[in-house]
């Protein structure tokens, strides 16, 4: 007996589709339109084709910001992913201690981005900030407002402090989802702590790690508020990332055409790298599962 499909169910998706169209697709098409025109004022614009894309791709500011951005995002992943796993492994699993640790880990995630920048702006000062004063007391020549390396490391440390909790919470949820039977079997086999992590915990964490890597890459690659509040992009251009370069172009110089082209290139880079991350990790997972069989 053939079943008749009820296509009226698609009506339930229609409101969400309209919301996405209004909030994402229409603004995106507007940016595409701006990127193909030379805009003088509200009523004067001339079609220039791909001229702005050619100009943006030759812009040294884009190249420099892109290198800084990739370096920052790579550093964030190399620190926060292992550190988040380590924190999750050390967290208690039962009792009031587990609840207390979960609350403490969630606190940095609740702080707005501009407030995080302000906190570290004070925290890292050498005269009144605990972090800056402690380094000065140890004889370390530290000044994030004048030294480009200090500024870059401070922004990195601020991001690690702010977002490692997210990775730890994701990994903690993945660890709690592992059945106790696995640990009991490992105990019977007298498996070492490293063997339990390597063959039981880490494979079971792959799904949440994919989410963690993608979230942290996309967010770190689009970072703007924290370094803008903390360093203003300086000293020099040491902490001027892609988002700040785009804002300077669109708001500071009011070059809407090049800024629109730049934003689309920016968007495509994020999508491409995220797709590469996702494809690589899922391919590795499928290969290991096939090998196990």
Topology:
Elements: H1 14-35, E1 37-41, E2 44-47, H2 51-57, H3 60-90, H4 95-110, H5 113-123, H6 130-137, H7 148-176, H8 180-188, H9 193-204, H10 206-221, H11 225-230, H12 242-252, H13 256-292
Antiparallel strand pairs: 1-2
Helix pairs in contact: 1-13, 2-13, 3-7, 3-10, 4-7, 7-10, 10-13, 12-13
What does this structure look like?
This protein has 293 residues and is mainly alpha-helical. Helix content is 73%, strand content 3%. The protein contains 13 helices and 2 strands; from the N terminus they run αββαααααααααααα. It has helices at residues 14-35, 51-57, 60-90, 95-110, 113-123, 130-137, 148-176, 180-188, 193-204, 206-221, 225-230, 242-252, 256-292; strands at residues 37-41, 44-47. It has a two-stranded antiparallel sheet. A hairpin with a 2-residue loop joins strand 1 (37-41) and strand 2. Helix 4 crosses helix 7 (148-176), helix 10 (206-221) packs antiparallel against helix 13 and helix 12 (242-252) packs antiparallel against helix 13 (256-292). It is globular and about 75 Å long. It starts with 13 loop residues before the first helix and ends with a helix. The model has no long low-confidence stretch (mean pLDDT 83).
Descriptors:
single chain, 293 residues, mainly alpha, two-stranded antiparallel sheet, 73% helix, 3% strand, globular
């Amino acid at each position: 007996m053939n079943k008749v499909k009820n296509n009226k169910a698609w009506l339930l998706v229609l409101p969400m589709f309209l919301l996405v169209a209004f909030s994402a697709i229409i603004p995106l098409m507007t940016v595409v339109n701006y990127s193909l025109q030379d805009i003088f004022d509200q009523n004067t614009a001339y079609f220039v084709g791909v001229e702005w894309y050619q100009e943006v791709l030759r812009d040294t500011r884009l190249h420099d910001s892109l290198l800084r951005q990739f370096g920052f995002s790579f550093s964030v992943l190399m620190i926060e992913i292992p550190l988040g796993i380590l924190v999750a492994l050390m967290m208690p699993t039962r009792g009031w201690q587990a609840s207390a640790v979960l609350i403490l880990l969630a606190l940095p995630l609740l702080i707005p981005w501009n407030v995080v920048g302000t906190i570290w702006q004070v925290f890292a000062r050498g005269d009144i900030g605990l972090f800056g004063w402690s380094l000065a007391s140890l004889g370390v020549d530290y000044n994030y407002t004048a030294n480009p390396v200090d500024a870059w490391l401070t922004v990195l440390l601020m991001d690690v402090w702010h977002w490692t909790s997210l990775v730890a919470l994701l990994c903690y949820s993945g660890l709690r989802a592992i059945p106790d039977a696995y640990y009991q079997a490992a105990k019977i086999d007298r498996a070492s702590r490293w063997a339990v992590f390597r063959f039981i915990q880490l494979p079971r964490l792959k799904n949440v790690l994919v989410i963690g890597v993608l979230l942290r890459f996309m967010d770190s690659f689009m970072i703007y508020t924290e370094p803008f509040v903390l360093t203003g992009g300086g000293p020099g251009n040491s902490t001027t990332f892609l988002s700040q370069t785009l804002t300077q172009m669109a708001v500071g110089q009011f070059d809407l055409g090049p800024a629109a082209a730049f934003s689309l290139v920016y968007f495509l880079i994020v999508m491409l790298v995220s797709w590469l991350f996702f494809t690589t990790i899922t391919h590795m997972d499928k290969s290991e599962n096939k090998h196990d069989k």
